Amino acid sequence: MTRRILRILGSRYGIAAILVLLVVVVVAVAQANSDPRPGGSRQQDGVVKEPSPGAPDDGYAVPDSEAAEEPTTENVLPAQAIADATTFADLWVVVGEVSAEAWYARLAPYATEATAQQLSGVDPLNVPASEIIGEPTIVGPTVEFDTDQGLLILTMTEENGTWKVSSIDFDHRPR
């Protein structure tokens, strides 16, 4: 009889049965030692004996509805920056009315040195827009102007107490 049992256990069916039995025992022991409640705190008679520290801080927070305020224009860009951006935009769309040199001379004081250098070779006839429509929109450090041909986006930077255009972007939108 012992030989018969050893022969069965030595076959592939016997080995499979032993492995299944081993998996069942491991799962049963793991379940017996685990706590099904979130946080894994141990309770006895409804009283928490060892509170868990909770999940680690993931850096994300959901703001309270009262505390979450939209940034105002004054918090993002001061009025002077918006005024300088508006002046630049008004001068930028003047095409065909002035020479390239006069157009550049008007814009250069409102631009950073790097932006002014980029504008130095531009022919104002290549400017895609000819009219500013409506009021500017402030988005972070940028001032956006809706034009007759798309969206003019000016990024403002403070240099030595004055606000200057540090980059110009134009988003063509079909009308």
Describe this structure in a few short sentences:
This protein has 175 residues and is an alpha+beta fold. The protein has helices spanning 2-10, 12-33, 73-76, 79-92, 100-107, 113-119, and strands at 42-44, 47-50, 132-139, 142-147, 150-159, 162-172.
What attributes does this structure have?
alpha+beta, rod-shaped, 6 helices, two-stranded antiparallel sheet, 175 residues, 6 strands
Structure description:
With 175 residues, the protein is α+β, with helices and mostly antiparallel strands. Helix content is 37%, strand content 24%. The longest helix is centred in the first third of the chain and has 22 residues. The protein is rod-shaped and about 110 Å long.
Topology:
Blueprint: H1 2-10, H2 12-33, E1 42-44, E2 47-50, H3 73-76, H4 79-92, H5 100-107, H6 113-119, E3 132-139, E4 142-147, E5 150-159, E6 162-172
Which structural class do the helices and strands define? alpha+beta
**Helical region count?**
6
Instruction: Determine the fraction of residues in helical runs and give it as a percent range.
Output: 25-40%
What general outline do the C-alpha atoms trace? rod-shaped
Question: What amount of the residues lies in strands?
Answer: 15-25%
* pLDDT averaged over residues: 80
Query: What's the helix-strand series?
Result: HHEEHHHHEEEE
User: Uncertain segments of ≥5 residues (pLDDT<50)?
Assistant: 62-74
Number of strands: 6
- Largest sheet strand order: 3-4-5-6
Distance between the termini: 93 Å
Largest sheet: 4 strands, antiparallel
State Rg: 36 Å
